[in-house]
Design brief:
single chain; two-stranded antiparallel sheet; globular; XnlR_reg_dom; transcription regulation
């Protein structure tokens, strides 16, 4: 749990789904009452399924009705699809804990047919279920499962021709195939970057165009409560996923290791520009937490939060400030050394010895400014347990960035508001730590130690200010002892 032995902390910090009885193995494909299922499906398509259109509502509802009205044996794959949508709704929308029996049962049911899903080629339903499993497993204690599943899902999509324009002659079916492909593409790039593992879908092997900016069917479109702002979330995430692939190539590919320093600098600048252009193209209301909370629904805020955290991860990684970058954390821990910051009395530390520590990254100001929005969204965006785990890596990165900024620049006017954010996020991590592990998270320990050093620098500045005020007071003529008795 976030200790120094953790190999993939970004994916290994959350609770795992419990394993319940697997009904498929007994041949009893049981489901909740039909009315209960239909209510859950409706809630799914009004919320998560509206913006991440993995399933087509009309097709899934018809399949569900057919499944309940059938007199014979229930079909395995449709049964698994219903269980998957139930699990997604319980976990993502209803904030059901992973240990809740009804959620654990649904996940066990879906997992029981994994082999059949990977070999399913009759339609894209098996692929859709695999992708839904990836979405749910992104934040569990078993990162390898999500990584293996996305690789299998992408290969299944490729075998069914989803990366190609040549698909079904039915316009509705073609539109759904394109949406499913781009969701798979997004997940592939997400997991590839977070796990530093090669992605499966190469850009050169698809000729599909990005989702239309303003789709006619409203699928993947985020809309403000007033209707004044309409934004294609699926397109923006697809565009960002393309950049995520370039970040991965730049940092972790074999080819990148052979680049000269000049070539690396040029590549980094190009990626920085791509990230800048992508962020600049977003509606500005999405980049202000107050406007976002005021104008958009909670589920919309969660989608923007997810998207912005993926952007922050790219930013942190290319500038070397990601919390799970060993070089960066080693540098941050240098502040704990008395050679860098002399420890003083009453919690008032000495000035930083800049000769004993490497310089901050060149884009430090951008990292600090952009991290604030990420932490504001997490602190005030009414996160569920699912989204909390999903965004934990970037939130911890932002927490450490703000702490380092206070240590380096305790005189900035933003210190008090930044500290308010830090306290909220740190308390959230403390609660997560207490619930998920008996051992303290290593990086959370580092954050607490940096917090003490940040406090020491702020106190040092306050102490100097107090001394200056006293000196100024005694420098006034009326405070001169020689003049007091004249």
């Amino acid at each position: 749990m976030w200790n120094e032995a953790t190999t993939l902390p970004c994916l290994g910090i959350s609770p795992q789904f419990l394993t319940g009885p697997i009904l498929a193995q007994t041949g009893k494909l049981e489901l909740p009452p039909s009315q209960e299922v239909m209510t859950v499906l409706e809630r799914h398509f009004e919320n998560y399924g509206r913006y991440m259109p993995l399933f087509d509502k009309r097709s899934l509802v018809k399949m569900t009705i057919d499944l309940y009205s059938g007199t014979g044996r229930k079909k395995l794959i449709p049964w698994a699809a219903i269980n998957l949508v139930l699990a997604m709704t319980y976990r993502i929308i209803d904030d059901v804990p992973v240990e809740e029996p009804k959620l654990a049962q649904c996940m066990s049911n879906v997992q029981s047919v994994t082999t059949e899903l990977m070999g399913w080629s009759g339609d894209i339903l098996g692929l859709q279920i695999l992708l839904g499993m990836v979405i749910l497993f992104q934040g569990t204690t078993n990162p390898q499962l999500a990584i293996v599943l996305i690789g299998s899902a992408i290969r299944l999509a490729q075998s069914m021709g989803l990366p190609s324009r040549r698909g079904s002659n039915d316009p509705d079916e073609s539109a759904q195939r394109r949406r499913v492909f781009w969701i798979a593409y997004i997940l592939d790039k997400d997991l590839s970057l977070r796990a530093k593992a090669p992605y499966t879908q190469f850009d050169a092997e698809t000729d599909l165009e990005l989702p239309e900016p303003c789709g006619d069917d409203d699928m993947g479109i985020l809309e403000s409560c007033t209707g004044a702002i309409r934004f294609n979330y699926l397109r923006a995430r697809s565009e960002l996923a393309i950049i995520q692939g370039k970040v991965h190539n730049f940092l972790y590919s074999r080819t990148a290791q052979r680049l000269s320093e000049e070539q690396r600098a040029e590549t980094k600048l190009r990626i920085q520009q791509l990230l800048f252009n992508w962020r600049s193209a977003l509606p500005q209301e999405l980049l202000r937490s107050d406007k976002l909370f005021q104008d958009f629904s909670t589920i919309s805020v969660h989608f923007v939060m997810n998207m912005y955290n993926r952007y922050l991860e790219c930013l942190y990684r290319i500038h070397g400030t990601f919390a799970f970058d060993e070089t960066w954390i080693d540098r941050a821990r240098c502040y704990l050394s008395p050679a860098v910051i002399p420890t003083g009395d009453d919690g008032i530390d000495g000035r930083i010895n800049q000769n004993e520590i490497s310089p901050l990254p060149s884009a430090w100001i951008d990292c600090v400014e952009h991290s604030r929005l990420g932490l504001e969204l997490s602190a005030f965006g009414r996160e569920t347990e699912y989204s909390t785990w999903l965004h934990a890596c970037c939130n911890l990165s932002g927490l450490i960035v703000l702490l380092v900024n206070i240590i380096e620049f305790p005189e900035q006017s933003s210190v008090m508001s930044d500290w308010s954010l830090i306290v909220r996020i740190r308390n959230k991590f403390d609660q997560m730590n207490a619930k998920a592990s008996k051992e303290p998270f290593f990086l959370l320990q580092v954050a607490h130690e940096l917090d003490r050093k940040a406090t020491g620098q702020v106190k040092r500045l306050a102490h100097i200010s107090s001394l200056n005020h006293q000196e100024a007071a005694f420098s006034e003529p009326w405070a001169n002892p020689d003049l007091m008795f004249l």
